[in-house]
């Protein structure tokens, strides 16, 4: 259950939409919502006040408990670490996709995921997502990171209307000494949780793996993609390394990651 949710705010125009999504999740799980603003050298003096006002207005009348936190960090470059540290006691961290004009560094999301150890929901920089998790696509390659993301997203998965497990080709074990955990095994595991999931094996036909995955999620009308966050060189197998970065740059729906 997501009982303690942290949403990062930067005083930008997308803050209100991010708060609305996080508020909906907090109300859905009868949890608490914390709005976090970390002031840095990149912010104008009024950004914090603007963000606090937006948070108060967007959470007014909410069934969930809401609280505001501001942390002043004058040292440049510490913003992702500070967000990650504040998020370590959250059940879910909500962030916004990097986009042109955003003051935060481009690798903020990756740093927060890696350093917080907590499930992170990333919302696209375009579009409105008042609800998340009614139709879920799980990107599965049997890896440790994919398993972490799966279980981190389980509160969403067990209450979703539809769940589809997607693999691309025939994923092999990330460690030759480990047996492959097939998508059929995952379906059996989900069934034990009362989830009647389906599965789809996509074939590579002149299109990148991540584009295949995002295209499938769009075709399914999914409002949540669940996938492991992998750090490492781009040539690593399937969803690894560069694939994580690609999705963060080209995402077309909310993505829940864990690494």
Report on the architecture of this protein.
With 259 residues, the protein is α/β, with parallel strands linked by helices. The protein folds into two domains: 4-123, Rossmann fold; 135-258, Rossmann fold (3-Layer(aba) Sandwich). The protein is 34% helix and 22% strand. The chain is built from nine helices and ten strands. The chain has helices spanning 15-28, 47-59, 79-87, 108-116, 144-152, 154-157, 183-192, 209-219, 242-250, and strands at residues 4-9, 32-39, 65-72, 92-96, 120-123, 135-139, 162-168, 198-202, 224-228, 255-258. The chain has a ten-stranded mixed β-sheet with strand order 3-2-1-4-5-10-9-6-7-8, sandwiched between helices. Strand 9, helix 9 and strand 10 form a beta-alpha-beta unit.
Task: Offer a quick outline of the entry.
The chain is of the alpha/beta class and 259 residues long. Helix content is 34%, strand content 22%.
The biggest sheet, with number of strands, parallel, antiparallel or mixed sense and barrel status, is: 10 strands, mixed
Low-confidence stretches: 232-241
SS-based class = alpha/beta
Overall pLDDT score: 86
Could you tell me the strand content as a percent range?
Answer: 15-25%
Please give the domain count.
2
The CATH level-2 architecture of the largest domain is identified as 3-Layer(aba) Sandwich
Give the % helix. Answer: 25-40%
At the fourth level of CATH, the homologous superfamily of the largest domain is HUPs
Number of strands: 10
Overall outline: globular
Main sheet: strand order: 3-2-1-4-5-10-9-6-7-8
By CATH, the topology of the largest domain is Rossmann fold
**End-to-end distance:** 19 Å
Please report the number of helical segments: 9
Over the alpha carbons, how many angstroms does the gyration radius reach?
18 Å
Q: Spell the H/E element sequence.
A: EHEHEHEHEEHHEHEHEHE
Q: What is the CATH C-level name of the largest domain?
A: Alpha Beta
């Amino acid at each position: 259950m997501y009982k303690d949710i942290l949403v990062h705010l930067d005083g930008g125009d997308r803050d209100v939409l991010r708060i609305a999504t996080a508020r909906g999740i907090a109300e859905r799980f009868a949890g608490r919502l914390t709005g976090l603003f970390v002031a840095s050298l990149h912010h104008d003096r009024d950004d914090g006040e603007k963000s606090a006002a937006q948070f108060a207005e967007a959470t007014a009348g909410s069934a969930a408990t809401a609280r505001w936190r501001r942390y002043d960090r004058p040292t440049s470059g510490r913003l992702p670490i500070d967000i990650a540290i504040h998020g370590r006691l959250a059940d879910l961290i909500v962030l916004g996709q990097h986009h042109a004009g955003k003051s935060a560094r481009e690798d903020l999301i990756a740093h927060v995921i890696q350093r917080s150890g907590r499930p992170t929901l990333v919302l696209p920089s375009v579009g409105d997502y008042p609800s998340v998790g009614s139709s879920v696509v799980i990107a599965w390659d049997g890896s440790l990171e994919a398993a972490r993301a799966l279980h981190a997203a389980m509160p969403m998965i067990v209450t979703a209307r539809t769940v589809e497990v997607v693999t691309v080709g025939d994923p092999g074990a990330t460690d030759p000494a480990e047996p492959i955990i097939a998508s059929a095994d995952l379906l059996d595991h989900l069934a034990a949780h009362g989830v009647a999931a389906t599965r789809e094996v996509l074939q590579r036909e002149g299109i990148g793996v991540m584009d295949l995955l995002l295209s499938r999620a769009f075709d399914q009308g999914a409002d949540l993609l669940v996938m492991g966050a992998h750090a490492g060189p781009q040539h690593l197998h399937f969803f690894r390394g560069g694939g994580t970065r690609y999705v963060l740059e080209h995402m077309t729906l909310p993505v829940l990651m864990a690494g």
